[in-house]
Design goal:
With about 270 residues, the chain is an alpha+beta fold. It has two domains: about 55 residues, Orthogonal Bundle (Arc Repressor Mutant, subunit A), CATH 1.10.10.10; about 170 residues, GAF domain (Beta-Lactamase), CATH 3.30.450. Helices cover about 40% and strands about 20% of the residues. It has nine helices and nine strands. A six-stranded antiparallel sheet has the order 6-5-4-9-8-7, sandwiched between helices. Strand 2 and strand 3 form a beta hairpin. Helix 2 crosses helix 3, helix 5 packs antiparallel against helix 9 and helix 7 packs across helix 8. The protein is globular.
Amino acid sequence: MTPSKPVSNSVGKNSTAVDPDLNHNDPLFVAAVARSVRVLEAFAGRRDALGVTELGQLTGLGKSAAQRFVHTWEQLGYLSQESGSRRYRLAHKVLELGYSYLRSDVLISAATPHLVALRDRCGLAVNLSVLAGQEMLYVLRLPSRQNTLSEMLPGRRMPAWANSSGRMLLTQFDDDGVRDILRRIPPRAMTNKTTLDIDELVAQIGQARSLGYSIAEEQVHLNQIGAAVLLHDDAQRPIAAISLATALSDYPRKRVISDLVPQLLKTASAIAS
């Protein structure tokens, strides 16, 4: 069975790390730009600074090419060199681009007041997520008082199978499509409760597809439970997921279903309208 494809949209358009060979038959594709962007993408998910030699190895560009790209990005303000070293970090201009995206995106603008109201009603962390390739990406995160800053920064990628939002986003695929994704990005243990069996995950995502909501317990953090529903556009095409996350000790599964899932469905309906 051929998996259905998620609909591209302003915040949910599928994207992967730039591959300069991906569009080699496209006369408008500029491979040099793609190679250059590889340098910036090498910093994704890293807290430490990187040297030119490391960047050359991580990107497959070689030291000489990496050095030229690094110098260019530094001159443009997207990379900065650590004082007294030859190592580099992302600079503030990257954040400026992120701000411009968050401020201008139509879905984020429409969803934000409703998500703030949901957070205030429930007192819990609220997230807006989209598919990014075969992963999920947080594009808006509203923390509760218990969350730390690092836990709630937007832009974080997660395996789509790992939490309620990602699993809800995967309901856009049929079972064979979900299984194919799980084989390409195999589940790995994040807690001792993480579901690793592919067939079980496919069944859970299938259940979420039938119910219209997804619940994940202790998959990424112990004593954490999350619930998510899909957000649809005017044509009823899924474009994002909204979720709530809280402590399992405060909200057992039955309470999540009775108290939080209706709030999520109500919010999704309000955003769509």
